Protein backbone atom coordinates (compact mmCIF):
# COMPACT_ATOMS: atom_id res chain seq x y z
CA UNK A 1 0.00 0.00 0.00
CA UNK A 2 1.69 3.18 -1.25
CA UNK A 3 0.41 6.29 0.52
CA UNK A 4 0.75 9.96 -0.34
CA UNK A 5 0.17 11.84 2.92
CA UNK A 6 -1.18 15.39 2.66
CA UNK A 7 -1.26 17.33 5.90
CA UNK A 8 0.25 19.58 8.50
CA UNK A 9 1.06 20.19 12.13
CA UNK A 10 0.94 17.74 15.00
CA UNK A 11 -1.84 15.52 13.62
CA UNK A 12 0.04 15.20 10.35
CA UNK A 13 3.19 14.14 12.22
CA UNK A 14 1.37 11.61 14.43
CA UNK A 15 -0.38 10.20 11.35
CA UNK A 16 2.98 9.80 9.62
CA UNK A 17 4.36 8.04 12.71
CA UNK A 18 1.30 5.76 12.94
CA UNK A 19 1.63 4.75 9.28
CA UNK A 20 5.35 4.05 9.59
CA UNK A 21 4.82 1.97 12.78
CA UNK A 22 2.43 -0.20 10.77
CA UNK A 23 4.98 -0.64 7.95
CA UNK A 24 2.77 1.24 5.53
CA UNK A 25 4.81 2.75 2.71
CA UNK A 26 4.49 6.55 2.83
CA UNK A 27 6.08 7.46 -0.50
CA UNK A 28 5.52 11.20 -0.41
CA UNK A 29 4.38 13.91 1.98
CA UNK A 30 2.61 16.98 0.57
CA UNK A 31 2.46 20.16 2.68
CA UNK A 32 1.33 23.73 2.11
CA UNK A 33 4.24 25.23 4.06
CA UNK A 34 7.88 24.14 3.78
CA UNK A 35 8.43 25.09 7.43
CA UNK A 36 5.62 22.87 8.72
CA UNK A 37 6.61 20.27 11.34
CA UNK A 38 5.22 17.49 9.09
CA UNK A 39 7.73 18.49 6.39
CA UNK A 40 10.55 18.31 8.97
CA UNK A 41 9.40 14.88 10.19
CA UNK A 42 9.19 13.55 6.64
CA UNK A 43 12.66 14.88 5.77
CA UNK A 44 14.04 13.25 8.94
CA UNK A 45 12.47 9.93 7.88
CA UNK A 46 13.93 10.18 4.37
CA UNK A 47 10.52 10.68 2.74
CA UNK A 48 10.14 12.94 -0.27
CA UNK A 49 8.38 16.24 0.52
CA UNK A 50 6.45 18.30 -2.04
CA UNK A 51 5.27 21.84 -1.30
CA UNK A 52 1.86 22.64 -2.80
CA UNK A 53 1.97 25.28 -5.53
CA UNK A 54 -1.43 26.47 -4.27
CA UNK A 55 -1.99 26.11 -0.49
CA UNK A 56 -5.74 25.62 -1.10
CA UNK A 57 -5.48 22.89 -3.75
CA UNK A 58 -3.54 19.66 -4.27
CA UNK A 59 -3.11 18.70 -7.94
CA UNK A 60 -2.19 15.43 -9.65
CA UNK A 61 1.46 16.36 -10.20
CA UNK A 62 1.89 16.64 -6.42
CA UNK A 63 0.73 13.05 -5.84
CA UNK A 64 3.49 10.42 -5.94
CA UNK A 65 3.50 8.08 -8.97
CA UNK A 66 1.79 4.72 -8.34
CA UNK A 67 0.02 5.99 -5.22
CA UNK A 68 -2.58 3.54 -3.95
CA UNK A 69 -4.26 5.92 -1.49
CA UNK A 70 -4.12 9.60 -0.58
CA UNK A 71 -4.49 10.22 3.16
CA UNK A 72 -5.11 13.71 4.53
CA UNK A 73 -4.24 14.62 8.11
CA UNK A 74 -4.95 18.21 9.15
CA UNK A 75 -4.99 19.52 5.61
CA UNK A 76 -7.13 22.51 4.68
CA UNK A 77 -6.50 22.06 0.97
CA UNK A 78 -9.00 20.57 -1.43
CA UNK A 79 -7.71 17.47 -3.20
CA UNK A 80 -8.51 18.08 -6.87
CA UNK A 81 -10.37 15.56 -9.04
CA UNK A 82 -7.18 15.06 -11.06
CA UNK A 83 -5.22 14.30 -7.87
CA UNK A 84 -7.83 11.78 -6.70
CA UNK A 85 -7.77 10.15 -10.13
CA UNK A 86 -3.98 9.80 -9.83
CA UNK A 87 -4.47 7.50 -6.82
CA UNK A 88 -5.68 3.92 -7.35
CA UNK A 89 -8.18 4.00 -4.45
CA UNK A 90 -8.76 7.76 -4.33
CA UNK A 91 -8.37 9.47 -0.99
CA UNK A 92 -9.56 9.54 2.60
CA UNK A 93 -9.44 12.09 5.35
CA UNK A 94 -10.30 12.28 9.04
CA UNK A 95 -12.85 14.80 10.29
CA UNK A 96 -13.42 15.29 14.03
CA UNK A 97 -17.20 15.11 13.99
CA UNK A 98 -19.98 12.65 13.36
CA UNK A 99 -20.41 13.60 9.73
CA UNK A 100 -22.57 14.96 8.26
CA UNK A 101 -22.81 17.05 11.45
CA UNK A 102 -20.33 19.94 11.75
CA UNK A 103 -18.82 19.97 8.27
CA UNK A 104 -16.09 22.58 8.18
CA UNK A 105 -12.90 23.89 9.67
CA UNK A 106 -14.13 24.34 13.26
CA UNK A 107 -15.96 21.07 13.94
CA UNK A 108 -14.65 20.55 17.47
CA UNK A 109 -15.33 24.16 18.44
CA UNK A 110 -18.90 23.86 17.16
CA UNK A 111 -19.35 20.62 19.09
CA UNK A 112 -18.56 22.57 22.27
CA UNK A 113 -20.52 25.67 21.24
CA UNK A 114 -23.63 23.60 20.48
CA UNK A 115 -23.22 21.75 23.80
CA UNK A 116 -23.34 18.40 22.01
CA UNK A 117 -23.32 15.62 24.64
CA UNK A 118 -21.47 13.32 22.26
CA UNK A 119 -18.81 13.94 19.67
CA UNK A 120 -17.12 11.71 17.21
CA UNK A 121 -14.80 11.22 14.32
CA UNK A 122 -15.26 10.15 10.73
CA UNK A 123 -12.92 8.80 8.09
CA UNK A 124 -14.53 9.80 4.83
CA UNK A 125 -13.83 9.65 1.11
CA UNK A 126 -12.40 12.88 -0.26
CA UNK A 127 -14.86 14.49 -2.67
CA UNK A 128 -15.63 17.77 -4.43
CA UNK A 129 -17.66 19.20 -1.56
CA UNK A 130 -15.90 19.75 1.75
CA UNK A 131 -16.38 16.90 4.24
CA UNK A 132 -19.24 15.48 2.14
CA UNK A 133 -17.78 12.22 0.78
CA UNK A 134 -18.99 8.75 1.70
CA UNK A 135 -18.23 7.51 5.22
CA UNK A 136 -15.58 4.79 5.52
CA UNK A 137 -15.53 4.53 9.34
CA UNK A 138 -17.00 6.38 12.29
CA UNK A 139 -16.90 6.30 16.08
CA UNK A 140 -18.17 8.44 18.94
CA UNK A 141 -17.29 9.57 22.46
CA UNK A 142 -18.91 11.51 25.28
CA UNK A 143 -18.07 15.19 25.70
CA UNK A 144 -16.91 16.13 29.21
CA UNK A 145 -19.12 18.62 31.03
CA UNK A 146 -16.58 21.46 31.13
CA UNK A 147 -14.30 20.24 28.36
CA UNK A 148 -12.79 22.74 25.93
CA UNK A 149 -12.43 22.04 22.22
CA UNK A 150 -8.67 21.53 22.66
CA UNK A 151 -9.16 19.12 25.59
CA UNK A 152 -11.74 17.11 23.66
CA UNK A 153 -9.44 16.95 20.62
CA UNK A 154 -6.41 15.85 22.62
CA UNK A 155 -8.24 13.41 24.93
CA UNK A 156 -10.48 11.65 22.47
CA UNK A 157 -10.78 12.91 18.91
CA UNK A 158 -7.14 12.91 17.78
CA UNK A 159 -6.45 9.38 19.10
CA UNK A 160 -9.76 8.25 17.56
CA UNK A 161 -8.64 9.67 14.22
CA UNK A 162 -5.39 7.72 14.29
CA UNK A 163 -7.23 4.50 15.10
CA UNK A 164 -9.93 4.98 12.46
CA UNK A 165 -7.43 5.88 9.75
CA UNK A 166 -5.39 2.77 10.61
CA UNK A 167 -8.51 0.56 10.51
CA UNK A 168 -9.61 1.88 7.11
CA UNK A 169 -6.12 1.56 5.61
CA UNK A 170 -5.79 -2.01 6.93
CA UNK A 171 -9.22 -2.78 5.46
CA UNK A 172 -8.13 -1.37 2.09
CA UNK A 173 -4.95 -3.47 2.20
CA UNK A 174 -6.93 -6.64 2.94
CA UNK A 175 -9.86 -6.08 0.55
CA UNK A 176 -8.41 -3.80 -2.13
CA UNK A 177 -11.25 -1.28 -1.78
CA UNK A 178 -12.57 1.19 0.78
CA UNK A 179 -15.79 0.79 2.75
CA UNK A 180 -18.32 3.47 1.85
CA UNK A 181 -21.79 4.56 2.89
CA UNK A 182 -23.31 7.87 1.82
CA UNK A 183 -23.81 10.69 4.27
CA UNK A 184 -27.43 11.56 5.07
CA UNK A 185 -27.73 15.14 3.83
CA UNK A 186 -30.81 15.88 5.93
CA UNK A 187 -28.57 15.95 9.02
CA UNK A 188 -25.77 18.07 7.55
CA UNK A 189 -24.66 21.17 9.47
CA UNK A 190 -21.83 23.60 8.84
CA UNK A 191 -18.94 24.44 11.17
CA UNK A 192 -17.30 27.58 9.79
CA UNK A 193 -14.37 29.22 11.58
CA UNK A 194 -15.36 31.07 14.72
CA UNK A 195 -14.13 34.58 15.54
CA UNK A 196 -11.78 34.58 18.55
Describe this structure in words.
This protein is α/β, with parallel strands linked by helices and 196 residues long. The chain folds into two domains: 1-88, Formyl transferase, N-terminal domain (Rossmann fold), CATH 3.40.50.170; 94-191, Formyl transferase, N-terminal domain (Rossmann fold, 3-Layer(aba) Sandwich), CATH 3.40.50.170. It is 31% helix and 24% strand. It contains five helices and nine strands; from the N terminus they run E-H-E-H-E-E-E-E-H-E-H-E-E-H. It has helices at residues 9-21, 37-44, 81-85, 107-113, 149-175; strands at 2-7, 25-31, 48-51, 57-58, 69-73, 78-79, 91-95, 118-125, 135-142. Strands 3-2-1-5-7-8-9 form a seven-stranded mixed β-sheet. Helix 1 links the parallel strand 1 and strand 2 (25-31). The longest helix has 27 residues, at 149-175. It starts with a strand and ends in a 21-residue tail after the last helix. The relative contact order is 0.16.
CATH superfamily of the largest domain: Formyl transferase, N-terminal domain
Total domain modules: 2
Sequence of secondary-structure elements: EHEHEEEEHEHEEH
Helix content: 25-40%
Radius of gyration from the CA trace?
A: 16 Å
Proportion of residues in β-strands: 15-25%
Query: Roughly what is the average pLDDT, rounded to an integer?
Result: 96
**Shape designation:** globular
Amino acid sequence: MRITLVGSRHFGVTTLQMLRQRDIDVVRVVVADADDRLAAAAHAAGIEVVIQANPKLVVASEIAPATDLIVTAHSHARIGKDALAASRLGGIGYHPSLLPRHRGIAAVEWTIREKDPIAGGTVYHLADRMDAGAIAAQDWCFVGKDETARQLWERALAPMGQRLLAEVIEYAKAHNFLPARPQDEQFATNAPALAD
